[in-house]
Amino acid sequence: MKRMFSMLLATMLMAASLGFAPAVLADNASAEADVNVAGIGKLSAQGDGIAVLSGKGIIDLSGNGILWVKDFNGDAKIEVTGYGSTKQFADGWVQYSGVHGNAHIKGSNVRVVIAGVNVDLQAKGRGKALLWGHGTYTINGKPGLWENNYFGKFLTVGP
Fold first, then answer.
1. What is d(CA 156, CA 3) in angstroms, rounded to the nearest whole number?
2. Closest to 159 in 3D by CA, of 49, 70, 39, 79
Protein backbone atom coordinates (compact mmCIF):
# COMPACT_ATOMS: atom_id res chain seq x y z
CA MET A 1 0.00 0.00 0.00
CA LYS A 2 2.82 2.40 0.91
CA ARG A 3 4.57 1.68 -2.42
CA MET A 4 1.37 2.33 -4.40
CA PHE A 5 0.80 5.63 -2.57
CA SER A 6 4.39 6.72 -3.29
CA MET A 7 3.97 5.79 -6.96
CA LEU A 8 0.69 7.70 -7.20
CA LEU A 9 2.19 10.79 -5.54
CA ALA A 10 5.22 10.69 -7.83
CA THR A 11 2.93 10.32 -10.86
CA MET A 12 0.93 13.39 -9.95
CA LEU A 13 4.07 15.45 -9.39
CA MET A 14 5.62 14.33 -12.68
CA ALA A 15 2.47 14.93 -14.66
CA ALA A 16 2.18 18.42 -13.22
CA SER A 17 5.81 19.25 -13.91
CA LEU A 18 6.13 17.72 -17.40
CA GLY A 19 4.91 20.89 -19.04
CA PHE A 20 7.99 22.67 -17.67
CA ALA A 21 10.57 19.90 -18.12
CA PRO A 22 10.85 20.00 -21.94
CA ALA A 23 11.67 23.73 -21.91
CA VAL A 24 14.43 23.15 -19.39
CA LEU A 25 15.88 20.24 -21.36
CA ALA A 26 15.77 22.19 -24.60
CA ASP A 27 18.23 24.68 -23.12
CA ASN A 28 20.58 21.90 -22.01
CA ALA A 29 21.06 19.76 -25.13
CA SER A 30 24.09 18.00 -23.64
CA ALA A 31 22.14 16.58 -20.70
CA GLU A 32 22.88 12.87 -20.40
CA ALA A 33 19.22 11.95 -19.84
CA ASP A 34 18.02 13.71 -23.00
CA VAL A 35 17.91 11.59 -26.17
CA ASN A 36 17.21 13.60 -29.35
CA VAL A 37 15.91 12.08 -32.58
CA ALA A 38 15.55 13.77 -35.99
CA GLY A 39 12.18 13.71 -37.78
CA ILE A 40 9.26 11.67 -36.58
CA GLY A 41 10.48 9.40 -33.85
CA LYS A 42 9.62 5.96 -32.58
CA LEU A 43 9.75 5.04 -28.91
CA SER A 44 9.25 1.58 -27.48
CA ALA A 45 9.40 1.05 -23.71
CA GLN A 46 8.72 -1.86 -21.37
CA GLY A 47 8.85 -1.91 -17.59
CA ASP A 48 7.27 -1.09 -14.24
CA GLY A 49 6.70 2.45 -13.05
CA ILE A 50 5.45 5.67 -14.58
CA ALA A 51 5.47 6.81 -18.19
CA VAL A 52 4.43 10.34 -19.15
CA LEU A 53 4.13 11.18 -22.85
CA SER A 54 3.21 14.52 -24.35
CA GLY A 55 3.00 15.51 -28.00
CA LYS A 56 1.59 14.63 -31.41
CA GLY A 57 1.28 11.10 -32.72
CA ILE A 58 0.09 7.61 -31.94
CA ILE A 59 0.54 5.78 -28.64
CA ASP A 60 -0.28 2.10 -28.15
CA LEU A 61 0.15 0.69 -24.67
CA SER A 62 -0.76 -2.17 -22.43
CA GLY A 63 -0.24 -2.86 -18.76
CA ASN A 64 -1.84 -3.01 -15.33
CA GLY A 65 -2.43 0.21 -13.41
CA ILE A 66 -3.95 3.65 -13.80
CA LEU A 67 -4.07 5.62 -17.06
CA TRP A 68 -4.72 9.35 -17.46
CA VAL A 69 -5.29 11.03 -20.85
CA LYS A 70 -5.80 14.69 -21.77
CA ASP A 71 -6.65 15.87 -25.29
CA PHE A 72 -5.63 19.52 -25.60
CA ASN A 73 -6.90 20.09 -29.17
CA GLY A 74 -10.11 18.07 -28.97
CA ASP A 75 -9.24 15.85 -31.94
CA ALA A 76 -7.83 12.76 -30.24
CA LYS A 77 -9.14 9.26 -30.85
CA ILE A 78 -8.91 7.31 -27.60
CA GLU A 79 -9.72 3.61 -27.35
CA VAL A 80 -9.21 1.84 -24.02
CA THR A 81 -10.15 -1.79 -23.38
CA GLY A 82 -10.01 -3.83 -20.21
CA TYR A 83 -10.31 -1.01 -17.68
CA GLY A 84 -12.28 -1.06 -14.44
CA SER A 85 -13.73 2.44 -14.18
CA THR A 86 -13.55 5.83 -15.87
CA LYS A 87 -13.63 9.29 -14.33
CA GLN A 88 -13.68 12.55 -16.28
CA PHE A 89 -12.35 15.71 -14.63
CA ALA A 90 -13.46 19.28 -15.33
CA ASP A 91 -9.96 20.23 -16.58
CA GLY A 92 -10.18 17.68 -19.43
CA TRP A 93 -8.25 14.77 -17.91
CA VAL A 94 -9.84 11.32 -18.15
CA GLN A 95 -8.75 8.67 -15.65
CA TYR A 96 -9.02 4.94 -16.35
CA SER A 97 -8.58 3.09 -13.04
CA GLY A 98 -7.78 -0.57 -12.82
CA VAL A 99 -6.42 -0.78 -16.36
CA HIS A 100 -5.67 -4.40 -17.22
CA GLY A 101 -5.69 -4.09 -20.95
CA ASN A 102 -4.77 -1.94 -23.92
CA ALA A 103 -5.04 1.65 -25.07
CA HIS A 104 -4.71 3.24 -28.51
CA ILE A 105 -4.41 7.03 -28.49
CA LYS A 106 -3.95 9.24 -31.54
CA GLY A 107 -3.98 13.02 -31.45
CA SER A 108 -2.34 16.29 -32.41
CA ASN A 109 -1.72 17.45 -28.81
CA VAL A 110 -2.19 14.84 -26.11
CA ARG A 111 -0.69 14.04 -22.73
CA VAL A 112 -0.75 10.45 -21.49
CA VAL A 113 0.30 9.21 -18.05
CA ILE A 114 0.37 5.58 -17.02
CA ALA A 115 1.42 4.28 -13.62
CA GLY A 116 1.61 0.53 -13.44
CA VAL A 117 3.38 -2.76 -13.88
CA ASN A 118 4.14 -4.70 -17.03
CA VAL A 119 3.80 -1.50 -19.05
CA ASP A 120 4.49 -1.97 -22.76
CA LEU A 121 4.21 1.16 -24.86
CA GLN A 122 4.86 2.05 -28.48
CA ALA A 123 4.81 5.70 -29.54
CA LYS A 124 5.32 7.25 -32.94
CA GLY A 125 5.36 10.99 -33.56
CA ARG A 126 6.86 14.09 -31.99
CA GLY A 127 6.95 15.01 -28.34
CA LYS A 128 8.48 14.36 -24.95
CA ALA A 129 8.50 11.36 -22.68
CA LEU A 130 9.44 10.82 -19.06
CA LEU A 131 10.05 7.28 -17.84
CA TRP A 132 10.43 6.64 -14.12
CA GLY A 133 10.78 3.20 -12.58
CA HIS A 134 12.58 0.18 -14.00
CA GLY A 135 12.65 -0.98 -17.59
CA THR A 136 14.13 -0.75 -21.05
CA TYR A 137 13.42 1.45 -24.01
CA THR A 138 14.40 1.80 -27.65
CA ILE A 139 14.25 5.15 -29.42
CA ASN A 140 14.72 4.96 -33.18
CA GLY A 141 16.65 1.73 -32.78
CA LYS A 142 18.91 2.96 -29.95
CA PRO A 143 18.38 0.95 -26.74
CA GLY A 144 18.55 2.29 -23.21
CA LEU A 145 17.51 1.69 -19.60
CA TRP A 146 15.11 3.70 -17.53
CA GLU A 147 15.86 3.36 -13.86
CA ASN A 148 14.38 4.55 -10.61
CA ASN A 149 16.32 7.73 -9.96
CA TYR A 150 15.37 11.20 -8.79
CA PHE A 151 14.54 12.69 -12.18
CA GLY A 152 13.55 9.67 -14.26
CA LYS A 153 14.54 9.38 -17.93
CA PHE A 154 13.61 12.31 -20.20
CA LEU A 155 13.36 11.57 -23.92
CA THR A 156 12.70 13.80 -26.92
CA VAL A 157 10.96 12.05 -29.80
CA GLY A 158 11.23 13.81 -33.16
CA PRO A 159 12.69 17.29 -33.81
1. 29
2. 39
